[in-house]
Amino acid sequence: MDPKHLVVIGDSRRMAEVPDDSVQLIVTSPPYFDVKDYGQENIGSLDDFSEYLEEMQLVFKECHRVLENGRYICVNICDIISHKYKYPIPAHYVLLLQRAGFEYREDIIWRKPSGVGANGAGGAAKRFGVFIQHPYHLFSSVFQEENQPSQDRGALFVSHLLPLAGSQLCSSRSAL
Length: 176
Prior knowledge:
Blueprint: E1 23-28, H1 49-66, E2 67-77, E3 80-82, E4 85-87, H2 89-99, E5 102-112, E6 136-145, H3 153-165, E7 169-171, H4 172-175
Parallel strand pairs: 1-2
Antiparallel strand pairs: 2-6, 3-4, 5-6, 5-7
Helix pairs in contact: 1-2
């Protein structure tokens, strides 16, 4: 089998260059809502949360279209605080990804005891001013294309994806 690699620079809401069912794995860190300057045309620069979610829904529908049957998408995201409001992005993304046709599989929590930025957020979400006895966490939610073959659903995930995760990742069941 000759691997074919395609690099496309563009908007993930419209991936016409990528054929249906042609991608084996998607790992993404989508733009954070309203906390970084991504430029005018970027989803993360929107200041209306509902509009942000609508645009992310388009991204996840395109991801579902290009992902091979039974394969995985891993989405790195965390809660966001913007203008003194906290937005539970991971909870919203679960619904968006399910609506796009994915099945929720697992949360992997990335414990970030070091490497956070000067504001303590590592360039991502800030925390409210409460005392928290654990380091910052970044969720990596794992979803599977729902029309998977009838093989053991977790076998591919456990044998291929988790070994790539490294020591800073852990299952949500053992993290807390």
